[in-house]
C-alpha cells in the first residue's frame, strides 16, 4: 500500500467522511467487477451480471467499514474475499442450486471416495456412473447441471501479487461445506493437501486446473487448447472439483483420526 493510500484510509477511519468513502469506493470498484466476472463464469443465463455487481458492491461497502488499515494487510486481498462472500450469500438466498442437485453432488463425492478407497487409484467415469446406476452420458449431464452452481468453485481465495490487480490462486477451499471440515486445519496444511490432490489427477484434469485457476483461461479457451467443446470442459471442471472435494474431506478426516 502506498503512503498516499495509507493516509487516505487513516483519514477516512478517523473522520468517517462521506466524500472520502466515495473516493475509496470508486478506487476499488474494479474489484467488484473483477469478482463478479469470475463468479459469472458458468452461471445460468438468467443470473444477470449487473445483479452480481450490485451484490458485490454491498460486500465492498462492508469491507471498507471493517478493514483495519493498521494491520498492514492489503485492502485488495481482504476486499475481494468480502465481495465474493456477499455475492455468494445472495446467490444462495436465491436457491439457484436445487437441493436435489446438491444431494447428487454429495453422492458423487461419496462414490468417488468409496471407489478410490477400494482400488487405491483415481476413479474412472465409467466406475462412478456404474456406482450411481446410470450411464456415463447421464453422469456428464449431472456434471453440466452442477457446473452452473458456484458452490462448486475452488476459486475462493484471492491474492494480490502486484498490488494492483487481484489474481486468483488455487490455495484453499472456503465455501460453507468445506470450511467446517477444515476448521481445525492450518491454512498451509490445506494448501499442501490440495496440491497433493491435484498432483494425483489424470493429466487432462490436471491441465484444466492449471489453465483455469493458475493461467486464468476461460472455459472456451481451455476447450481450444484441449481440442474439445466448451461444454466438455465444463463437465471436466465439475468432475475435478467433486474429486478434489472428496479427496480433501477424506484426507482431513484421516488427519482428525491421527490427532
SSE blueprint and pairings:
Elements lengths: L2 H13 L2 H23 L8 H18 L8 H19 L5 H21 L5 H7 L4 H12 L10 E3 L5 E3 L7 H6 L5 H13 L3 H12 L4 H8 L3 H29 L1
Antiparallel strand pairs: 1-2
Helix pairs in contact: 1-2, 2-3, 2-4, 3-4, 5-12, 7-12, 9-12, 10-12, 11-12
Task: Describe it.
It is a single chain. It is built from twelve helices and two strands, in the order H-H-H-H-H-H-H-E-E-H-H-H-H-H. The chain has 259 residues and is mainly α. The protein has two domains: 1-96, RNA polymerase sigma factor, region 2, helix turn helix motif (Rna Polymerase Sigma Factor, Chain: A), CATH 1.10.1740; 98-259, Butyryl-CoA Dehydrogenase, subunit A, domain 3, CATH 1.20.140. Strands 1-2 form a two-stranded antiparallel sheet. A hairpin with a 5-residue loop joins strand 1 (158-160) and strand 2. Helix 10 packs across helix 12 and helix 11 (219-226) packs across helix 12 (230-258). The chain is elongated.
Characterize the overall form: elongated
Strand order, largest beta sheet: 1-2
Count of helical segments? 12
Which CATH class of the largest domain is shown?
Mainly Alpha
- Radius of gyration over alpha carbons? 20 Å
Mean pLDDT: 76
Task: Give the DSSP E fraction (strand runs of 2 or more residues).
Answer: under 5%
Distance between the termini: 40 Å
Range of helix content: 55-70%
Which key phrases capture this entry?
Rna Polymerase Sigma Factor, Chain: A, disordered C terminus, 259 residues, 12 helices, mainly alpha, two-stranded antiparallel sheet, elongated, Butyryl-CoA Dehydrogenase, subunit A, domain 3
